[in-house]
Write a structure and sequence with these properties.
Blueprint (H helix, E strand, L loop, with lengths): L1 H11 L28 E4 L2 E4 H15 L3 H9 L2 H13 L6 E5 L5 H18 L5 H5 L1 E6 L2 H14 L7 E5 L12 E7 L8 H11 E12 L7 H21 L2 H13 L11 E4 L4 E7 L2
Parallel strand pairs: 3-4, 3-6, 4-5, 6-7
Antiparallel strand pairs: 1-2, 7-9, 8-9
């Protein structure tokens, strides 16, 4: 109920939007406007663009970086993104028989972790035999970008996953999911919510597809306010990351956008979350909640 209420209030009021990415929120501590979420203009990094342009521009970014996306994540985070995603899975607590949806996860990094955790749980419980519950397990990877999905499918084949059994790849929009109401036990979105044009629509869709008691988890980069580290983080973000993107991926502009998109999110102090983890000196945040 709370996730739906947050989405509704985002669509009709001046609620801040960064820390309404979880399924449970208290009232905001600020009335900072977010008119750009609801007008004909929205942000693409530091630029203001029409809403109908943003999805195309974001699509171009991820088409450009798809083949080098995971390598760049390692370089940009010093490998920390792996630890953050492991924490995400720990909080999700996957189980055999689970129906799970990972949104904006085209390369499969989160989905593979979910599958591996479920197989680990099943193996310990059944000493290696395949249970009916494990056979009922299904993980859906939904991404709007076909190039990102192609990378994920290739990685899945390399890992030996059987797509027909437990893993499906779906091209789709976080704002208009193709899944049935109340069909998912879990919903995750890692480093994707800031690229959505209408965050309130994505939250409404997350609420719609989750079962009662289902789990919502959002992993996202954030602002840093720790003295000294903030200055280092800014220099690294605006000078090092775009340069590395140009060197490794041959694409400085796309990584410049990714850095700017993080800064465009309002600071986390604008809202008071009640189910929220701060990871690695505020660089990364994990938002989580249950559908009531």
């Amino acid at each position: 109920m709370v996730l739906r209420a947050v989405a509704a209030r985002l669509a009709s009021s001046s609620l801040c939007h960064h820390h309404v990415l979880q399924a449970a929120l208290l009232a905001p501590t600020s009335t900072s406007p977010t008119a750009f979420l609801h007008s004909q203009a929205t942000s693409f990094g530091y630029k203001q663009v029409r809403e109908d342009e943003k999805s195309k521009l974001v699509g171009n970014v991820f088409s450009s970086v798809a083949s080098s996306y995971d390598v760049m994540n390692d370089l940009m985070s010093g490998g920390l993104h792996r630890l953050w995603k492991d924490r995400l899975i720990s909080k999700l607590n996957p189980f055999p028989g689970m129906k799970h949806l990972d949104v904006a996860g085209g390369t499969g990094d989160v989905a593979f972790r979910v599958v591996e955790r479920i197989k680990s749980v099943s193996h310990r419980a059944t000493q290696g035999t395949l249970t009916d519950l494990e056979e009922d397990t299904h993980i859906y990877v939904c991404d709007i970008n076909p190039n990102m999905l192609d990378v994920g499918k290739k990685r899945a084949a390399e890992k030996g996953y059987n797509e027909e059994h437990c893993l499906s790849w779906v091209q789709g929009d976080a704002e208009a999911l193709s899944f049935d109401d109340g069909s998912m036990d879990g919903y995750t979105i890692a480093f994707g919510i800031r690229n959505v044009t209408h965050i309130e629509k994505a939250l409404s869709e997350a609420y719609r597809v989750l079962k009662k008691g289902g789990r919502f988890l959002c992993l996202e980069l954030s602002h840093v306010d720790v003295p000294i580290f903030k200055d280092i983080y800014d220099v690294y973000s605006f000078s090092v990351i775009p340069a590395v993107g140009e060197l490794v991926a041959g694409d400085r502009k796309s990584y410049q956008y990714l850095v700017e998109s993080i800064r465009r999110f309002p600071k986390q102090v604008l809202c008071r979350p009640i189910s929220f983890d701060m990871l690695t000196w505020q660089v990364d945040h994990l938002h989580r909640g249950n559908i009531l």
